[in-house]
Specification:
The protein is built from ten helices and 14 strands. With about 300 residues, it is an alpha+beta fold.
Length: about 300
């Protein structure tokens, strides 16, 4: 648990921007060096600037404040449009475009020297929650990787109102599966979801939002893996879906006490941060509130087991 707490802790180095003035003897106007100004002057960001303008966000990033922007290049936007079947930026629904752009923005001036592996909140919201903004998983084990889909290629372009890090792919709104695959501590779970063909379910919106109690890799000890390996396919699916509560995005401050009905139609009981499954095994909730666009993840230190008769 201590190792995981260390993993998800994101220590952000917030530094004050240095305002640069270019004044002549005749008191000419101050020269702006905002995030929007820098992006507008770089031809590799022309699609980003067009997108910000269409979403009425260019003015926001031109004003005083403190923002970190992970800025996709034109090539990254072209790939995003192609992958999602859009012929042009104008074809992207405006609400979607706005939230995708906000998913690239983090409050504060976070230089690369202050980024560590763990979660940070973006300014975007998904359909699952209007109050808990989306989580972004930053992995610094080899460079800086964002939600497992985009890498920083140029860091620390400083502006009057924050900093720009150039990225090589648009960071789409993360699903439950996005976060399961991006965080190495969930790699075993991600593999099992793929094997049981549950990725489509937890990537989608049917029965969403989901509240997922996701076992860490350490929860799949030898005994648990041996037990799981001896189950048939139907039972394996039952075990995995037993960790999913459909139709609710329940944050840690609102987790109810008592029996909870799961996706698998089984139940477990929650008391505080302890879950008791149908086999009377106690499991601890060890990390909370990883927000996805279609639900929320809370990490647990043991695999929950339903009755498998």
């Amino acid at each position: 648990m201590k190792n995981y707490a260390k993993l998800i802790k994101l220590t952000l180095l917030v530094v004050s921007s240095t305002l640069m003035f270019s004044c002549s003897d005749d008191d000419s106007p101050t020269q702006n060096n905002s995030i929007t100004d820098i992006a507008s002057e770089n031809p590799n960001f022309s699609i980003l600037v067009d997108a910000l303008t269409r979403a009425d966000l260019a003015e926001t990033l031109d004003q005083e404040g403190s923002y970190t922007v992970f800025a996709p290049t034109n090539d990254a936007f072209i790939d995003f449009l192609d992958a999602n079947g859009f012929e042009s930026l104008d074809d992207v629904p405006l609400p979607t475009l706005t939230q995708v752009l906000l998913n690239h923005v983090v409050s504060g001036t976070n230089l690369s020297s202050g980024l560590t592996t763990g979660y940070v909140k973006t300014l975007a919201t998904g359909s699952a929650s209007s109050t808990n903004t989306l989580s972004m998983f930053i992995n610094t084990e080899s460079g800086v990787r964002l939600n497992g889909v985009s890498s920083v290629t140029t860091a620390d372009i400083t502006a009057d109102n924050g900093v720009i890090h150039v990225v090589d792919a648009v960071i789409g709104l993360p699903t439950i599966v996005t976060h399961a695959t991006a965080n190495p501590n969930f790699s075993t779970l991600a593999t099992l979801l793929t094997e049981q063909e549950l990725v489509g379910t937890l990537n989608g919106t049917a029965s969403s939002p989901f509240t997922v109690f996701a076992p860490l890799n350490s929860a799949f000890d030898t005994a648990t893996l041996n037990l799981y390996g001896g189950l048939n396919s139907t039972q394996k699916t039952a075990v995995l879906t037993y960790h999913v509560v459909p139709g609710a995005n329940v944050l840690s401050n609102a987790i109810p006490s008592g029996p909870i009905t799961t996706f698998e139609t089984g139940t477990f009981t929650i008391s505080g941060t302890v879950i008791t499954d149908e086999q009377s095994r106690a499991t601890n909730i060890v990390a909370t509130d990883v927000q996805a666009s279609n639900g929320v993840i809370h990490a647990v230190n043991q695999v929950l087991l339903p009755n498998l008769d």
